Amino acid sequence: MLSQSRAVEAARRAQLLSHITDDLLRNDEPEDAAARLAGLVVPVLADCAVVTLIDDDHCRGRRGLRTATATATATATATATAVHDAR
Hints:
- This protein is of the alpha+beta class.
- It has two helices and four strands, in the order H-H-E-E-E-E.
- A hairpin with a 5-residue loop joins strand 2 (62-72) and strand 3.
C-alpha cells in the first residue's frame, strides 16, 4: 500500500511538472510567467507562493526586484496577483 501511494504521488507531481512546463513555455513575458507559476503551485504544493524576478540593469547600474504572489482561498483555488515592481 505504501509503495502504491508513493507511486500515485509521484505520478501526480510529474503531471503537475508537465503542466507547469507547458504553461511556462507559452508565456513570452517573464512577469506573466512568474504570476502563472505562483498560481499553478498553489494550492497543489503550498498555501501561498512568491516568485521573485531579479533584473540586472547594467545600463543604470542597479538591480531590480519584481515579485508575483499567489494565495489559496477558502475554496482551495489559487488567486495570483499582478507582478509588483520593487525598485
